[in-house]
Specification:
- This protein is an alpha+beta fold.
- The chain has 2 domains: 209 residues, 2-Layer Sandwich (Endonuclease, Chain A); 189 residues, Endonuclease, Chain A (2-Layer Sandwich).
- It is 35% helix and 21% strand.
- The protein is built from 14 helices and 21 strands.
- The strands form 4 sheets. The protein has a 9-stranded mixed beta sheet, sandwiched between helices. The chain has a 7-stranded mixed beta sheet with strand order 2-12-11-10-5-6-7, sandwiched between helices. A 3-stranded antiparallel beta sheet has the order 4-3-20, with no helix packed on it.
- It is globular, with a radius of gyration of 24 Å.
Length: 486
Amino acid sequence: MRIFQRFQNKFQWSKQRYFISILSVLFLVYVASAIYHTVKPLPEGLDYTGPLRAAKVEFIADQTLVNAQGQVYTEQHIFNAMLDMVHRAKTTIVLDMFLLNDRFGQTNPPTKRLFAQELVQALVEKKRLDPNMNIIVMTDQMNSLYGSILPEEYVQLRRVGVELVETNLISLRASNPMWSGLWYLCCQGLGNDVGGGWLPSPLSSDRLTLRSYLNFLNFKTNHRRNLIVDTSEGWQALVGSKNINASGDFQSNTAVIVHGAAAVDVLNSEQPVAKMSDTALPYVLIKDEPITANTLQAQVLTEQAIGRAMVELLNQAKKADHVDVVAFCLSDRQVIHALKAAHNRGVNVRVLLNPNQDKLTRYNNGMPNRAVAQELFHAGVNVRWCERCHARMLVKRDAAQQRAELILGSANMTSRNLRNYNLETDIRVVGLANDPVFMQAQQHFNQSWLNEGNVHKSVAYEEFASYSRVKYWLYRFMEWTGFSSF
């Protein structure tokens, strides 16, 4: 009996050891997957720092303003410029746009303009008038809710022969390794069922499949907002922060149009994105123009190159220089440290943040900006709130008001946007401070900061101030782990 009992105990212990061994191996595989997909090599051509080019650069801004009577009105200069560029294109249009779906951001009653439909109709008409026109549209999988729906915009473009591609993001690194480590082991090969969703969507009235939700948790995004065309005046590229969806009426955005060689750099920087999705783009070579000390110069930046340029701009700012920042989302620790260090050196720093509580943008909990503003404000940095600001822009002017530098585009100032996780494009501009591009960018910031022209755009820090240490450390945890949508 004792021998049998001893054998039984030994057998049970062996089963436990076997079970523990299997779990240990699976856990190690999961950890290895999470680590690999966080550091794996990027596709060639991403994280791009273009050359400084002599360039003509135009600054454009959308405005959402509240007048003295409390009435909200908008000025849609960016979108109008996009329609004009499409109209003037000669042979080629390349659009890389994060959002292209008017079902997102719809309100009751409906918004005044359906931006996606307007842009799609302009592209469709262009293709019908000239069937040989080369039109390529690249966008993010979020527009189809990761395969749960087929947007009407897709149908209309493909019907006339426009090549529309949802960017394949598998080769990007994982910004949320806690989930992606498992996703790539178990779920990435699962199919999806268009129209078969049964779960509510946070973006529209559509229904999502379970697989779409699971895919969404990877938080991978083609976040670029670029339009490149060839015109009778040469190549032009618009790079900015505007989304093409129904809520565009309610957001203030910034953009630049670059001409010539810098515009061609934007086009060529789209090559790796197209290649990731088995699409071909035209590759263009253009002669560079000579540069002198007073030449306005533009530089194309993508992915982590944007983060490096932002930190370098802040680190090079000297005492009595001026640095102004507008951010829809600010959470990257390197940028935050650089802002505080610049302030401590005597740089005049002003930071204009969205309070992340706008229901139209689905940010209702104040994360991350209210926690970050708390840190900056207590460090002595000037902070104000701009509820409708959707821009991402840094402007630096030296103390003598002689030289200036500008960085703006699609990238939020978060690790996900600045550290080689999302696809992003920004333009860096350097030159004389009295150049119109800098004067207009500064005027746009000052109008928002000071509420100039009898309009209401920003409020004091105290209006949305956060005093919660719990929320601050929650932001730090979310930023560190990547388990967040910012």
